[in-house]
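tmp note - Membrane protein
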Amino acid sequence: MKEKLKGHSAMFTANFLWGIMSPISKSIFFTGVISAFSLTNMRMIGAAVFFWIASLFMPREKVTRRDLLLLFAASLFGITLNQGFFVVGLSYTTPIDASVVASLTPIITMILAAFIQKEPMTGKKIIGVFMGLSGALMLILDGAEGMTGGLSGGRVMGDLFCLIAEISFAIYYVAFKDLINRYKPVTLMKWMFLFATVCCLPFGSSGIMSIPFATLDATVYLDLFFVIFGATFLSYMLVSVGQKRLRPTVVSMYNYIQPIVASLLAVWWGMDSFDLVKGFAILLVFLGVYVVTTSKSRAQLEAEMALKAVREGSAAAGNEAAKDTNR
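out:
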């Protein structure tokens, strides 16, 4: 029970920090000198440095060559594609839109689990998927109003980029569960962020070098520190803690915290507005997430079938015994 409580606390804190990150990242973009891709590279480099420093104070774990390849693949889906598409998408869309799209991760995770882990797609899950996707579609169409660029328009393109980011993260949740269980969080993250940095730094180093750091305000530095240390280093370490103790569907369920946090902050800071369409879209997403995550897992269904078989066997044996007695 204590271990599960640790997992729930870790996932709540991680998603709370990510919810705050959306409007803070948007305020960083408003400076006009730090691009989305530059911020992504700074997150990867900064987190890699923090994790490798942290590893110096912990017992060393030996990682096999095969697992290093798996860690590279995990970093591709869990960090490189996830952070890259999300931060670039956030530069085009609004914090509320980005966070609501992020809350679709539990639904996407359930779909992938059906194919990768052979989890059954029950009627309840299908209804939840339909409700969640309907909410996301409403969000995208609301963002498309008044645009001349169609699906290539800024806000819609940003929403779609955020959706790609969440699909990548859902793949990470489902496909690398066994790998996550084999190593400690710091060991996992130091290699994953190192690989992510190696992949992205060649394309983003010039952007970072062109940032006039000497002219940035102190508030911008505080925002950068929060995004790199709080919403990247701490959050990813907490996610790995949660993954070790909770099922992928339960882990992904905590994404619904992000829209609440981001929406309150964005509206409070005057960076976004809240209307009835957004409210209904969020409601549909939340209901879809609830329906999907409360549906029965494969293990639960197999346990129920086994129990039913035992009861039927016991009943049949009892009937046979009664017949023998009557004879």
